[in-house]
Amino acid sequence: MDFTLSNEVKRDEIVKKLVEGTEEFAINRPGNRIVITGKGGTGKTTITAILSYLFAKESHVLAVDADPQMNLPYALGMKKELAREIVPLNRHVDYIEEKTGARPGSGWGEFLSLNPDVSDVVDRFGIDVDERISLLVMGTLHKAAIGCLCPENDLLDSVVRHISLRNDDVILMDTEAGVEHFGRAIAKGFGHAIVVSDVSFNSVQVADSAIKLAWDLGIQKIHLVFNRVGSNESSIKDLLKEMDQSIPFTVDYIPYDDSLGAVDPSVTSLIKNNTTILPAVEKLLKRVQNSE
């Protein structure tokens, strides 16, 4: 069966057959499958990186960079010259052709098919940040091609479905403003959405949309995080009134810390020096772990 031309129900049936015996196990571990989203510039990549190091104290972590800015390697502390050399998965044209049967940019006349063995993607393209954290840089879906027969999109969609089934990893996926880009691929394996906002009306509006998208996709554990909160904390109550209250979500606050600018983009110094940010992210981590 042609994977791309299948409707969503058929796609789910295909994936279930390909990974028979593992999908149920993965879905039963929703606390280990977390997507982080929010308006650009709110600090979601920083939070993803800190959570990666905190989770890595007890588990192996697969940090997935699905944001087109591709800043997660820097936030995790990779050397800048090495981070700049990373080729995102959506630009590995040979791999895309190998798995989908079509080469990006080759035209629309080819049929796309799914090669079930995308489970090799982490072994082939994953980067070891340290012994407990691996990094996979996805790139992003081509906006103009969402929903079309695009081999890059098909490959990334398939990879998201399969990495969510990795039994031995905590999965943290840093995305751009919305989670609709991967649609049901996210919904099938990810149990938590962390939505990051700053204390501004525009950012909260983006967060409100992201929460609705996550909920519509079936992600029921949603955590709104206000980042860089200073003396403006009192205004958060008014901002929350602007949001849809019919969807349940928790609220956390991460304080403003001017030391972050001194170590940006890497969070490794924040982890070692136990800054004021760290206890707040640790509280968020415990909330996620205890909300099963």
Outline of the structure:
The protein is α/β, with parallel strands linked by helices and 292 residues long. The protein has helices at residues 8-18, 23-27, 44-55, 72-75, 80-83, 93-100, 121-125, 151-163, 183-189, 201-216, 236-240, 259-263, 268-273, 277-290; strands spanning 33-38, 60-66, 127-128, 133-137, 169-175, 192-197, 221-229, 250-255.
Question: How would you summarize the topology of this molecule?
Answer:
Blueprint: H1 8-18, H2 23-27, E1 33-38, H3 44-55, E2 60-66, H4 72-75, H5 80-83, H6 93-100, H7 121-125, E3 127-128, E4 133-137, H8 151-163, E5 169-175, H9 183-189, E6 192-197, H10 201-216, E7 221-229, H11 236-240, E8 250-255, H12 259-263, H13 268-273, H14 277-290
Parallel strand pairs: 1-5, 1-6, 2-4, 2-5, 6-7, 7-8
Antiparallel strand pairs: 3-4
Helix pairs in contact: 3-14, 6-8, 8-9
Account of the protein in words:
- By secondary structure, the protein is an alpha/beta fold.
- Helix content is 39%, strand content 16%.
- The chain contains 14 helices and 8 strands.
- Strands 3-4-2-5-1-6-7-8 form an 8-stranded mixed sheet, with helices on both faces.
The number of distinct helices, counting runs of at least 4 residues, comes to 14
> What's the total count of β strands?
8
Helix content: 25-40%
Query: What is the strand arrangement across the widest sheet?
Result: 3-4-2-5-1-6-7-8
H-E order: HHEHEHHHHEEHEHEHEHEHHH
The structure class reads alpha/beta
Gyration radius, rounded: 19 Å
Low-confidence stretches: 1-6, 21-28, 143-147
Q: Would you tell me the overall average pLDDT?
A: 82
Distance between the termini: 37 Å
Strand content: 15-25%
Shape, per Cα inertia axes: globular
Main β sheet profile = 8 strands, mixed
